[in-house]
Design brief:
The chain is of the alpha/beta class. It has a single domain, classed as Alpha-Beta Complex (Spore Coat Polysaccharide Biosynthesis Protein SpsA, Chain A), CATH 3.90.550.10. Helix content is 28%, strand content 26%. A hairpin with a 2-residue loop joins strand 8 and strand 9. It is globular, with a radius of gyration of 19 Å.
Length: 299
């Protein structure tokens, strides 16, 4: 059974200042999502599901359907900002969606096979898709999932701070913990993160980090739905609370229900967290094309 690729493309892009899901970075107007879909096809994925907001659905379909509709099964799931939740009333008005965990949940009816989850604005590299595809076809189970682990120093931006899930693994490369760190940047040659009180702490630049490239069985939907209702109940007065994938995974690991294999990638991550990141990504993709790793025109 070919796995599915689930692309989280409903984010608001507050630091970027626009709809970065549709921003062109390739030599013929390709977006980062185009490269992800191309890599997924080459790696043996059989379907792509894009999670989007209703107000950008038409734009996204117009952008991707003509290119990829006859090359791979392409579907869309809708993540809305303010959603009714059964049994819970008087929720505060939200300005952002409920987070990546909820984004996965809205695709439940479209995904019936093992699946990978990625961000729309991250360029992960072909090898990561091949490695994850092999795992999803040969190693995934309800009790064993996976994530691609990147090296922290390969995931920094030259244009501001980033947030990363810092990973601790055991001797067999199974995940032990993921600690969310915000405001990570290189200062005077050292990688540090800044706490809310302004204090800075060093990080090992060779640590694994999660870039939100996960591999799950469909059992993840059931577990996420169960945790989501409890999460919302606990955060009925917090309009900024977000239900993140690492929270779900961590709860399952702590309950002894799940092991997560860390699949290493030494690739240089690329992403467009900031507007200033775009020319850097564009130049690096141009170099990959010149090196023959991608065709000049994907489709």
């Amino acid at each position: 059974m070919k796995p599915t690729l689930l692309v989280l493309a409903a984010g608001m892009g507050s630091r970027y200042g626009g709809l970065k899901q549709a921003d062109q970075v390739g030599p013929n107007g390709e977006t980062i999502i185009d490269y992800s879909i191309y890599d997924a096809i080459q790696a043996g994925f059989g379907k792509v599901v894009l999670v989007v907001r209703q107000n950008i659905l038409d734009e996204m379909k117009a952008l991707f359907d003509p290119k990829w509709g006859n090359k791979i099964q392409l579907e869309y799931a809708i993540q809305e900002v303010n959603v009714p939740i059964e049994g819970i009333s008087n929720l505060p008005e939200r300005k952002k969606p409920w987070g990546t965990g909820h984004a996965v949940m809205v695709a439940k009816q479209l995904v019936k096979e093992p699946f990978a989850v990625i961000n729309a604005d991250d360029f992960y590299g072909a090898d990561a898709f091949k490695t994850m595809s092999r795992f999803l076809q040969d190693g995934v189970s309800d009790n064993e999932n996976a994530m691609v682990g990147y090296i922290l120093k390969n995931t920094l931006s030259d244009h501001g701070y980033v947030s990363r899930g810092i990973c601790e693994t055991d001797s067999k490369n199974y995940l032990k913990t993921v600690t969310e760190r915000t405001n990570i940047e290189r200062v005077d040659g050292e990688v540090v993160f800044t706490e809310k009180d302004g204090s800075q702490h060093a990080l090992d630049e060779n640590s694994y980090v999660s870039m939100n490239f996960w591999g799950f069985s469909t059992n993840f939907f059931t577990e996420a739905e169960s945790q989501f209702k409890e999460f919302v109940t606990q955060n009925t007065d917090n309009e900024k609370a977000e239900f993140f994938i690492p929270l779900i995974v961590g709860n399952l690991m702590n309950a002894g229900k799940l092991k997560v294999k860390v699949l290493e990638s030494t690739a240089q991550w690329m992403g467009v967290t900031y507007k200033e990141d775009k020319p850097v990504v564009t130049e690096k993709i141009s170099q990959l094309v010149k090196a023959g790793l991608y065709p000049e025109k994907l489709v």
